[in-house]
Structures are given as C-alpha cells and as structure tokens.
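Changelog note: in this version the structure field was regenerated for every chain. One regenerated record is shown below for reference.
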Amino acid sequence: MDLLSLYCDCGIRRLPVDPRSLARHLGFSLRTYEQFCRDSGEPLFSLLHSHNPDAFTHILPDGPVIVYNRQCSPGRRRWNVVHELSHALLGDLSLSEARDAEADRLTADILSPLPVVSLCGVRSVREIHDLCGLSHEAAALRWKELCAFRRGERGVWTDGDWALVRHFQPFIAAVLDGFSPQSTTVPVY
C-alpha cells in the first residue's frame, strides 16, 4: 500500500486522519451499531454476539458499510474504522489472524506515519495521542515503534519516508512553530 498516494487521493495533509473522509473516498459509509440495527431490523444483542463488538464491515446492495461502536473512545473509534478500511485496502475482508495483523500494521501507518510524527518532535505517548488522535493503548504501542524508528532499527530513511515528510511539510512546520496538536484535532464523529 502506497501511503503517499492514499493521502494525496484522499486530500489528507494533516493529522489526525479523518476516518469519515477516508471512508467516503473509498466508497464506504459509516453507521453506528444503533443506526445499523434500526436500518436492518436486527437486534443489537444478536449483532454484538455475531460480530466484533468494536466494528465490522458489512456489504449492502448499495455498497459496503462499516458498523462501529460509538461507545468506544474517540481514538478507539478512529482506529476501528481505519482498521476496517485497511482490510479493504489490502483487498481482503477475511478475519484471519495474519490478515488482521497486516490490517493493524497498515492502520498504524495510516494514522501515525512515523517519519511525520518523528519530525513533529513528539516526545511522549501523550503527544502521539494528541497529535494523531489515537487511543492511549495505540499511542503507547506507536511510541515504542517511534523510539525504534528514531534509533534507526528500521534502517535508513527511504525515499518514501522523505516523500511523506514533503507531503506533510506545512503541517509539520505548524506543529514545530507551536501550533498545538489539540487545535488540529478532527471533530469526533
């Protein structure tokens, strides 16, 4: 998956990523569990029992829909929706553990591209949380990956890393100039 092309195609030039616009661009609609139950007539208990309680993708005659749990924290909702979209971007909506791990990797890369986060000067889990709109759990995992990235454990920066930095350069500059990451937050859906 070419992240730069995805960001360009979807008009993503800052963090946190807005899952609604990403879903819309990819041809998905979003529904809460409650909305989906009301529209489908399926009881909530039955839906929660037969699907992932955080989010799942369902194919309807008018296109795919991601059904998500609005009771999750905003960061968790963002992750869940983008995780479902990542399955579609990988071309597989199956629920195998291997494919789920690939979708998690892509989700982390979409929501918090390490070269961009690194050059924004992030210094803590809290700053990743604020900058990328991640849950605390996801931010803590990404912090460990960012530390390894900064130590060069992934090797030297690639041309793709620098292309992401160029794409996000105005955003990075705004963050470095003291423009608070909180003021860049995408509204919660």
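Spot check on this record: The radius of gyration is 17 Å. Strands lie at 29-32, 55-60, 63-68.
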